[in-house]
């Protein structure tokens, strides 16, 4: 796993502890905080049993493998030696999209960010700020510039028919057909997770597609 970890158990075996070096994991791991040990570790978490600790360890690996800067580093290795011809740019984009999808599958635990659908064939790696409009490769390969969405949600999001507030609530254009509304049910749809980075990128998406910045 990128970044070091430390594991510990209390003397009586009643509590387990996980400390992580990766700052992104420390910020995003959903577990009870504990005082981190001295040194380079950025966060520590306590658990009542080993099963909970193992679940958190698995989630820490997912986050560390999908958050900056591992996908970007992988991409830079993959495209090393490629130039800037049109054909080479297409190869770069294809390789980048593949890496981005793998990162989103890890980040969202291979489930749609809205519906929880876990059928891999139906899941799409959707950029919030599109690949072509990103400012640099780091933004293109940032898992938090993306949402793993079921195909129907991906199509609607990509075309700007739906977006999300900073609280994760779905918002939609008034011209959506009734059959689409019935399928998406955006009135009750929410993102399962929204981080500060998501909010920054979603703000761009709302402005770009005319939702304002509410």
Task: Please provide a written account of the structure.
With 214 residues, this protein is α+β, with helices and mostly antiparallel strands. It has 8 helices and 8 strands; from the N terminus they run ββαββαααβαβαββαα. The protein has helices spanning 23-28, 50-66, 70-78, 86-107, 137-140, 151-158, 178-184, 196-208, and strands spanning 5-9, 16-20, 33-34, 43-47, 123-127, 146-150, 162-164, 170-172. The strands form 3 sheets. The protein has a 4-stranded antiparallel sheet. β3 (33-34) and β4 form a beta hairpin. The longest helix is centred in the middle third of the chain and has 22 residues, at 86-107. It is globular, with a radius of gyration of 19 Å. The model has no long low-confidence stretch (mean pLDDT 95).
Terminal CA distance reads 38 Å
Strand runs, count: 8
Mean pLDDT: 95
Which sheet architecture does the biggest sheet show?
4 strands, antiparallel
- Note the overall shape: globular
Helix fraction, binned, reads 40-55%
What amount of the residues lies in strands? 15-25%
Short account of what is shown:
The chain is an alpha+beta fold and 214 residues long. The chain has eight helices and eight strands.
